[in-house]
Amino acid sequence: MSLQVVSPTGGIAPLLRADGVSLEYGGTRATHDVSFDVYRGDRFVLLGPSGCGKSSLLKAAAGFIKPAAGSISINGEEVRGPGPDRIVVFQEFDQLPPWKTVKENVMFPLLMTKRVSRHEAAERAMHWIAKVGLSGFENAHPHTLSGGMKQRVAIARALAMQPEVLLMDEPFAALDALTRRKMQEELGRLWEELRFTLLFVTHSIEEALVVGNRILLLSPHPGQVRAELNSHQFDLASAGSAEFQAASQRIHGLLFGADDAAAGAVAPAQAGAYAERADKRSMDSRVRGNDGRGVAP
Ligand SMILES: Nc1ncnc2c1ncn2[C@@H]1O[C@H](COP(=O)(O)OP(=O)(O)O)[C@@H](O)[C@H]1O
Ligand SMILES: [Mg+2]
Which residue positions in the chain have pLDDT lower than 50? Predict the structure, then answer.
């Protein structure tokens, strides 16, 4: 059996915790009682169909909207507003002020914090621009860049802030398939090097498996937790494999299957070593991956 159950009180505290989060817009519930824990170094993915509240949860984590019930905390402190410890990369290419150059865009939030001098901000900006492969484009304006390059700038700008958690809301969804793949690969490469903590939103099952080490499945209207999966063993290289296909089918079943019979079409053992949490209330039997927390799946 590929599942291993561990106690939630087993030691390490989560970096980011969503605890029974319900989000509402004018009395309409967007998410209901959503709980999850993100640990340092996780690539935690919120996956679900359009309208299940992924963006709303990300915005709540960023501190842009306040839960109607429940809470989000970071390092044990309740999130009460935006902060430099949580930086968001959005899907939209227009997230970069067009009148600023690439370098000025990356420097801008650093200067806003007033924690670094202009000289240091410029140095850091050049460092991160190189890290995302944009050396030579420092003085270009966003409108002269491709969509993929604009997203690289947004990633450089976010990483330059060295946030506790990098929040990404479908950052590659508007890119063509090849560029999207390339960006997923480069995000993986950056993570291998830097081991930042990522909270990543997508509606693509494949992208969730490629990007994440843990995946929270959400069902819509209102968004609720369906399951939590451990997906650390998948990457772009394994994307065509039978194991990957099986995992992806099982996720599809969990998200869209009429009942658990459909979801159970592929057993976890067959689908590979990914663990799942079928019901968020069974907190005692929370399952954890082996991604840095020493528990083998
Ligand atoms: N600003 C808003 N005002 C009113 N309703 C909203 C707003 N933003 C999102 N919603 C609603 O909340 C639900 C979740 O939306 P969202 O978080 O954008 O989902 P997702 O990102 O998963 O597609 C949807 O039903 C959506 O219509
Ligand atoms: Mg969204």
Answer: 1-7, 9, 259-275, 278-297
Question: So what's the pLDDT on residue 57?
Answer: 98
The tally of domains found in the chain comes to 1
Q: How many residues does the chain have?
A: 297
The pairing of strands 165-169 and 198-202 is parallel
Please give the pLDDT value at position 1.
38
Owning domain of residue 37: 16-85+163-285
Closest ligand to Cα 53 = 1
**Residue from 29, 56, 59 whose mutation best tests the ligand 1 pocket (most atoms within 8 A of CB):** 56
b/e sequence 174-206, b meaning 16+ C-beta within 10 Å: bbeeebbbbbbebbbebbeeeebbbbbbbbbbb
53 Cα distance to chain centroid: 14
Ligand 1 pocket residue status of 27, Cβ below 6 Å: no
In a domain, 131, yes or no: no
Q: Do residues 134 and 153 touch, judged by C-beta distance below 8 A? A: yes
Ligand nearest to the CA of 52: 1
Question: What pLDDT shows up at residue 265?
Answer: 37
What pLDDT, on a 0 to 100 scale, did the predictor assign at position 223? 97
| 278 touches 272 (CB < 8 A) | no
**Side chain identity at residue 290, one-letter code:** N
Q: How many whole angstroms from 163 Cα to the centroid of ligand 2?
A: 21
Give the pLDDT of residue 199. Answer: 98
Residue 216 belongs to some domain of the structure: yes
Indicate which CATH number applies to the domain containing 68: 3.40.50.300
